[in-house]
Specification:
single chain, 14 strands, Rossmann fold, 2 domains, 218 residues, elongated, alpha/beta, 4-stranded antiparallel beta sheet, 5-stranded parallel beta sheet, Arc Repressor Mutant, subunit A
Length: 218
């Protein structure tokens, strides 16, 4: 697997690149936003959000626009909740705050790459009213209109669509979508909010206060 490491601190980038190479990853380093956007295609990006020539959040947005399947993990010292929320909304799959252990980072890399591989259990297609999901191809249409979703948004929708009309607890969604890494309930809320906006029907995914979410069937 090929990883693009976007980090302007040469010492930090060198240590991370060496550790990742020892674990069998092919690592390319990019010290700036411009270099990140000009880099060759990869499987996953480890993205510092504070770069000398631009905001990493904007880099994240552009990379996500280019590919819905690209794995993106924000790796940054910016640990405030608003930074986490913004990073996730711009398309990051996960968010790691410095300092961190390589064991934690690798667990998150494995989780994101596994999802990027597109392996999904269950039926090939799911239909819930006007909503149609091709699980294998990771395609969604609503009223005949194709809806472009990030990987996490898609996985949340599939988790709900497999139990249409039933309340799916937050914990179940976390287990389905973030099975090998840590994620908070607020992370689910951020992705659900973005999912609703892209579906264009805020009531299609209904909140059940204190419990979870339900996919409307009518």
């Amino acid at each position: 697997m090929r990883i693009l490491l976007v980090e302007d601190d040469a010492r930090v980038a060198g240590a991370m690149a060496s550790a990742l190479s020892r674990r069998g990853y092919d690592v390319e380093r990019a010290p700036t936003a411009a270099a990140a956007l000009a880099a060759a295609p990869c499987d996953l990006v480890l993205l510092d959000l504070t770069l000398p020539d631009g905001d990493g959040v904007e880099v994240c947005r552009v990379l996500r626009q280019r590919s819905a399947r690209l794995g993106i993990i924000a790796v940054t010292a910016r640990g405030e909740e608003r930074d986490r929320v913004l990073g996730l909304r711009m398309g990051a799959d996960d968010y790691v705050v410095k300092p961190f252990s390589m064991a934690e980072l690798e667990a998150r890399i494995v989780a994101v790459l596994r999802r990027a591989g597109g392996a999904e259990p269950g039926p090939g297609t799911i239909e819930v009213g006007p909503l149609w999901i091709d699980v294998a191809a990771r395609l969604v249409t609503l009223h005949g209109r194709q809806v472009g979703l990030t990987r996490k948004e898609f996985d949340i929708l599939v988790s709900l669509a497999r139990q249409p009309g039933a309340v799916v607890p937050h914990e179940r969604i976390l287990l389905d979508v973030w099975p090998t890494t840590w994620a908070a309930r607020h992370t689910v809320e951020v992705h659900v909010g973005s999912l609703r906006g892209k579906l264009g029907d805020p009531d299609l995914v209904q909140s059940v206060r204190g419990v979870g979410y339900r996919l409307r069937t009518e």
